[in-house]
Design goal:
With 595 residues, this protein is an alpha/beta fold. It has two domains: 24-335, ABC transporter transmembrane region fold (Up-down Bundle), CATH 1.20.1560.10; 358-592, 3-Layer(aba) Sandwich (Rossmann fold), CATH 3.40.50.300. Helix content is 65%, strand content 10%. The protein has 19 helices and twelve strands. A six-stranded mixed sheet has the order 6-9-10-3-11-12, with helices on both faces. A four-stranded antiparallel sheet has the order 2-1-4-5, with no helix packed on it. A hairpin with an 8-residue loop joins strand 1 (358-365) and strand 2 (374-381). Helix 6 (143-176) packs antiparallel against helix 7 (178-225), helix 7 (178-225) packs parallel to helix 10 (294-335) and helix 18 crosses helix 19. The relative contact order is 0.08.
Length: 595
């Protein structure tokens, strides 16, 4: 039953891949037509060569009987030999042509799927990336696609030509001698049955190997990105051990998959060789009895070779195609992942210059429906107010911000911006009103000016410099060798963590958003720089709604509204003085700083 389900899944995958091909189908049609001509010429060559051999044999025997020399002339064999040479040349040209088309088809299909994956990643919710390692996703977009392209370029073409050659050769073999052909078919059926047994196991081991490749890729990415932490905690040996385990698992599954893929070829070849030996014995007797001529004898064996070799290759390539199907299934699994909700067809207007009034109305949220984290969140942030969000690690502070940005969708209640529900706004329209400065900085490989202008690519150099000055980043930028044209490489390791954070602050200042979100925005800078940034932030937050996630409560005593969170819910809210007088959780947190 499990094998039937796998076969149904493989068939569905192939059908879906066929639908994905789209406009590339014309290439496959041309390849199929080319294969037909190639097959006709390849099948015609042996029967034509049979006549040439018989002709030459008669000429040789006549020369021996008459005691004259034997010579090939244009009239006596030369013309026929040149025609045969032309047939073989044409088959070679056709095979080269269809190989080129198949390579083009495979690469274009790979490009189409890679484009679909790229677009899909833009539409996936954050929950997908929370539950999948980066390396695993990269593996599907690289290793699995490369595997598919490699097999399609070689395997599918060989499968097409194998089918054509086997059918054509069998028809000609029946024409020459039915009995010999039946013997060949007996051994052929044995080969097909063996191929089916190998194919079922190959698909299972190929799927396990691709999963192991994903784990190794994820392990490598994780170890590289966390190399500093690994060394700081003396975890080199443990990390190496985890890598060895992942590689060992990959080696084991690869060995089994490669064994199944490579064992089928010699086994099928052995069966075919036994069949040829049996056929040779019977054909030799028929030759001696005069049933077969010398030309027919050699032509029949050409057809045996033309049918048996493609069968051997087809058996190997069917197993390779099973491996490719396993890769394609993993690609389609990614493409079938649940996407974020599409933009509303009639988005609400008035989002370009929002005033910044934010309201949470009885908001409910859980990362899974059965585990609700936030049960009833309600508060209002008026334009220009500073809202501080405090609480212990895991209290739900960042989750609250993620809901505001629609990185996650609420399970109940409503969030509004200027009175308009955020789920009635386009993602672009909503997020264009927000500027985020996170604790974990992200900069891409490019110049400092390009990184600052990430949110406003059309910004002038003067505007970029003004934003950098406001973020107190202009001085250190000008000390670099190329100033604003300095290229940040890799993870921007050529500048310090504090400098990276200054650049992200400058990036937000350049966008000049209506609502600011600051998640411990000054956690990586020194005290003096923090004071300077604080001044810039105060100027930036003036007349703008701002949400500040803070662990150092001394930085938010001037907040208009403080939300104290615990286990996903707001347990206290008010300004600094009100919460201190209440002597609740906030007062305890605040006073603990001075204990």
């Amino acid at each position: 039953m499990a094998e039937k389900r796998r076969n149904k899944g493989a068939a569905a995958t192939v059908m879906r891949l066929w639908k994905t091909v789209g406009r590339q189908r014309i290439r496959l049609v041309i390849v199929a037509v080319s294969v037909i001509f190639y097959t006709v010429l390849s099948v015609a060559a042996p029967v034509y060569s049979a006549g040439i051999v018989d002709l030459l044999w008669r000429e040789i025997r006549g020369a021996l009987e008459n005691g004259t020399g034997f010579r090939v002339t244009w009239e006596h064999g030369g013309r026929e030999i040149m025609i045969l040479f032309g047939i073989y040349t044409a088959t070679g040209v056709l095979y080269t042509f269809q190989s080129f088309l198949m390579a083009s088809f495979a690469e274009r299909l790979s490009l189409e799927l890679r484009t679909q994956i790229s677009r899909k990643l833009d539409r996936l919710p954050l929950s997908f990336f929370d539950n999948h390692k980066t390396g695993e996703v990269l593996s599907r977009a690289t290793n699995d696609l490369d595997k598919m392209s490699e097999v399609l370029q070689t395997g599918l073409l060989k499968l097409f030509t194998a089918v054509g050659m086997v059918v054509g050769s069998l028809l000609m073999m029946f024409r020459f001698h039915i009995g010999l052909t039946v013997v060949f078919l007996v051994f052929t059926l044995l080969s097909i049955f063996s191929t089916k047994l190998f194919a079922a196991k190959t698909l299972r081991y190929a799927a396990l190997r691709q999963q192991a490749v994903s784990r190794v890729t994820g392990q490598v990415e994780e170890a590289y990105s966390g190399r500093t932490v690994i060394r700081a905690f003396n975890r080199e040996e443990k990390s190496a051990e985890e890598m060895r385990d992942a590689v060992k698992e990959l080696a084991d599954t690869s060995r089994k998959a490669d064994f199944m893929m490579n064992m089928v070829n010699p086994f099928i070849r052995l069966v075919n060789r036994l069949g040829q030996a049996v056929i040779a014995v019977f054909a030799g007797k028929l030759l001696l009895d005069g049933v077969l001529t010398v030309g027919t004898f050699q032509a029949f064996f050409q057809y045996v070779y033309q049918a048996s070799e493609p069968l051997t290759e087809a058996a190997y390539m069917i197993n390779s195609l099973q491996s490719s199907i396993a890769s394609v299934e993993r690609i389609f699994e990614l493409l079938d992942e649940k996407e974020i909700l599409p933009d509303t067809a009639d988005p609400a207007g008035g989002t370009e210059n929002a005033e910044g009034r934010v309201e949470f109305r009885n908001v409910r949220f859980g990362y899974t429906p059965e585990r609700i984290l936030m049960k009833d969140i309600s508060f209002t942030a008026e334009p220009g107010q500073k809202i501080a969000i405090v609480g212990s690690t895991g209290a739900g502070k960042t989750t609250l911000i993620n809901l505001l940005m629609r990185f996650y969708e609420v399970n109940g209640g409503q969030i509004t911006l200027d009175g308009v529900p955020t789920d009635c706004l386009t993602y672009r329209g909503l997020r264009s009103n927000f500027g985020m400065v996170l604790q974990d900085t992200w900069l891409f490989e490019g110049t400092i000016a390009e990184n600052i202008a990430y949110g406003r690519p059309d910004a002038s150099r003067e505007e970029i410099i003004a934003a950098a000055k406001a973020a107190r980043a202009d001085f250190f930028i000008r000390t670099l060798p190329k100033g604003y044209d300095t290229v940040l490489e890799g993870d921007a390791d050529n500048i310090s963590a504090g400098q990276r954070q200054l650049l992200t602050i400058a990036r937000v200042m350049l966008c000049n958003p209506a609502v600011l979100i600051l998640d411990e925005a000054t956690s990586s800078v020194d005290t003096r720089t923090e004071m300077e940034i604080g001044k810039a932030m105060n100027a930036l937050m003036k007349n703008r709604t701002s949400f500040v996630i803070a662990h150092r409560l001394s930085t938010i005593v001037d907040a208009d509204l403080i939300l104290v969170m615990q286990n996903g819910d707001i347990i206290e809210k008010g300004d600094h003085k009100e919460l201190l007088r209440a002597k609740g959780a906030y007062a305890e947190l605040y006073n603990s700083q001075f204990a």
